[in-house]
TrEMBL record:
Protein name: Ion transport domain-containing protein
Subcellular location: Membrane
UniProt lineage: Eukaryota, Metazoa, Chordata, Craniata, Vertebrata
Presence of the UniProt keyword DNA damage in the record: no
InterPro entries, sorted: Ion_trans_dom, TRPC7_channel, TRPC_channel
Residue intervals passing through the bilayer: 86-110, 122-142, 317-340, 360-376, 388-410
Length: 615
């Protein structure tokens, strides 16, 4: 018999139970690699839905047999590397790191060769992309290395190569490391554009790592754009000096204000200067770039659980921020309203403006604000006492209550991960592997900017197909306009719709009469599961705490429909039917219990009367 879980997610729990059962059964294990391989080889929407369904089940994905098949697919075309030691794998990764440019050139020339097939394997794609991103991070470090020991000139100094050079021309020029960083950014932008084209915008924004990439690349583009605009303005000022200034020393010449501004030292720049904005955005982009390392951590057994715990922690922090912002805004506005009339009448400017209120309350969380912030120079004790009370309540609420609540939430999330760390890590690693199983995006940035001969070949084929379709559609329209009139066109519409219906019915009939190899395998697995469940029906026991009710074995087509993911509406209907059936059975059970109690009472009464008569 089939034992179903509570209605709070029956499809997922039943599917997880069924899939793990299939993997645990020795007779069915031999078919699991074929089923997973067939699912990944297909490109239909049904298969994508099925694989999405698979990814909902942690126990199924983390099962040893499933992980074994995923490992086989991960080391595709590299079967010998799988059994090697960590040292050999490290040497292979090091070789790819050194020879990545040469491997990219070889792939451009012969993408269908043995080397090209090796580079298209998921493991090699992962290594190539990881190495490319590591080089990108190294360029970010090298770009800042010239300032590790301090800057060459102070903010109030201007240093130029020759007397007639504009100071800003020297500071806005792009270095060789910055040019390489721009190439990497362009390559990553192109890769993201291809991913959006293949998956669609809706699927793209679902993944948080894609949003991080989009934000990081957008900030890089904004930073380089602002830097380039500053360079253009400085170049225009330099052209003016070269054309109209005859003196070799600019200090002896009176320049127009818009030109003289570019000769000033940094301490005289405007706050809205494009170069200042560029430097601020660049710093944010660097931080986001290094945080991107967390994406590849699930590939490692040691760092994977830590990364999962970090992800859960970030979710807890976002939940905590809702309450934190509400409390913070309440006290910030209240303290500002209390002390905004005393600007200049306090020992420090705390709470006299909105900005100062924000700074004082924020840093008081870390113990960096003083109690003197609420003291007035005047003898207004009532205002001071209210300030003391509000400031004290704020510190107790934020530091003692909310921060400890956040620590407890983070600790709870970490304990949940630790209790089932192996399953959680294998599930996260499987999701990382799945992102490299698809075809395409073999070369990482910036090598993907150069189109390969294969790209030109596919482009020519697409143009050819578009031209053929265009010519056929034009020829068909011309023939229809010449041969048919309006009356015949109506008849043609009727025949067209009927032919569509016949085609759909015929295709639907073929879908059942001629199932694919994948459908045959899944149907065979489900049949075995149904037969096994029918044999063990009498031996199963119903545990009220674990399962709510028992139903007869469903039809195998229902299970096939549930697993294939063909219709989302059918899943919702099945869930509703199961929920309604549960309540109906419970109601019938309660009614039967009441009737049974009445019968027992009647029997006991009759038995008592009979005994009294006999006595």
């Amino acid at each position: 018999m089939y034992v179903l879980p509570p209605p709070g997610g029956p499809v997922c729990l039943v599917g997880n139970f069924l899939f793990v059962y299939l993997l645990d059964n020795k007779d069915m294990t031999c078919h699991v690699p074929q089923a997973i391989s067939e699912a990944y080889s297909l490109k239909s929407l049904q298969t994508k839905l099925l694989m999405s369904l698979f990814m909902l089940f942690l126990q199924f994905v983390a099962h040893p047999n499933c992980q074994q098949q995923l490992l086989t697919m991960w080391y595709e075309n590299l079967s010998g590397l799988r059994q090697q030691s960590i040292a050999v794998k490290f040497l292979a990764v090091f070789g790819v790191s050194i020879g990545l440019p040469f491997l990219a050139i070889a792939y451009w020339i012969a993408p269908c060769s043995k080397l090209g097939r090796t580079l298209r394997s998921p493991f090699m794609k992962f290594v190539a992309h990881a190495v490319s991103f590591t080089i990108f991070l190294g360029l970010l470090v090298v770009n800042a290395s010239d300032r590790f020991e301090g800057v060459k000139n102070l903010p109030n100094e201007t240093i130029t190569d020759h007397p007639k050079q504009i100071f800003r021309v020297k500071t806005t020029q792009f270095s060789w490391t910055e040019l390489l960083i721009m190439k990497w950014v362009l390559g990553m932008i192109w890769s993201e554009c291809k991913e959006i084209w293949e998956e669609g915008p809706r699927e793209y924004v679902v993944h948080l790592w894609n949003l991080l990439d989009f934000g990081m690349l957008s900030i890089f583009v904004a930073s380089f754009t602002a830097r380039f605009m500053a360079f253009l303005k400085a170049s225009e000022a330099q052209q003016y000096v070269d054309q109209y200034v005859q003196d070799d020393d600019l200090n002896n010449v009176t320049l127009p204000p818009e030109v003289a501004y570019f000769t000033y030292a940094r301490n005289k720049w405007l706050p809205s200067d494009p170069q200042i904005i560029s430097e601020g955005l660049y710093a944010i982009a660097v931080v986001l770039s290094f945080s991107r390392i967390a994406y590849i951590l699930p590939a490692n057994e040691s760092f994977g659980p830590l990364q999962i715990s970090l992800g859960r922690t970030v979710k807890d922090i976002f939940k905590f921020m809702v309450i934190f912002i509400m409390v913070f805004l309440a006290f910030m506005i209240g303290m500002f309203n209390l002390y905004s009339y005393y600007l200049g009448a306090k020992y420090n400017p705390a709470f006299t403006t909105v900005e100062e209120s924000f700074k004082t309350l924020f840093w008081s969380i870390f113990g960096l604000s003083e109690v003197i912030s609420v003291v007035l120079k005047y003898d207004h004790k009532f205002i001071e006492n209210i300030g003391y009370v509000l400031y004290g309540v704020y510190n107790v609420t934020m530091v003692v209550v909310l921060l400890n609540m956040l620590i407890a939430m983070i600790n709870n999330s970490y304990q949940e991960i630790e209790e089932d760390a192996d399953v959680e890590w294998k599930f996260a690693r499987a999701k990382l592997w799945l992102s490299y199983f698809d075809e395409g995006r073999t070369l990482p940035a910036p090598f993907n900017l150069v189109p390969s001969p294969k790209s030109f070949y596919y482009l020519i084929l697409r143009i050819k197909m578009c031209l053929i379709k265009l010519c056929k559609s034009k020829a068909k329209n011309c023939e229809n306009d010449l041969e048919m009139g309006m009356l015949n066109s109506k008849k043609r519409k009727v025949r067209f719709h009927s032919s569509i219906q016949n085609t759909e019915s015929f295709s639907g009939k073929n879908a059942y009469t001629k199932p694919t190899r994948y459908q045959k395998i899944m149907k065979r697995l489900i049949k075995r599961y149904v037969l096994k469940a029918q044999v063990d029906r009498e031996n199963d026991e119903v545990n009220e705490g674990k399962w709510n009710f028992v139903i007869d074995p469903p039809n195998e087509h229902v299970l096939l429909l549930l697993l294939s993911g063909q219709y989302k509406g059918e899943l919702k209907e099945i869930k509703q039917d199961i929920s309604s059936l549960r309540y109906e059975l419970l109601e019938e059970k309660s009614q039967a219990t009441g009737e049974l109690a009445k019968l027992i009472q009647q029997l006991s009464d009759k038995f008592g009367k009979t005994l009294n008569k006999d006595i």
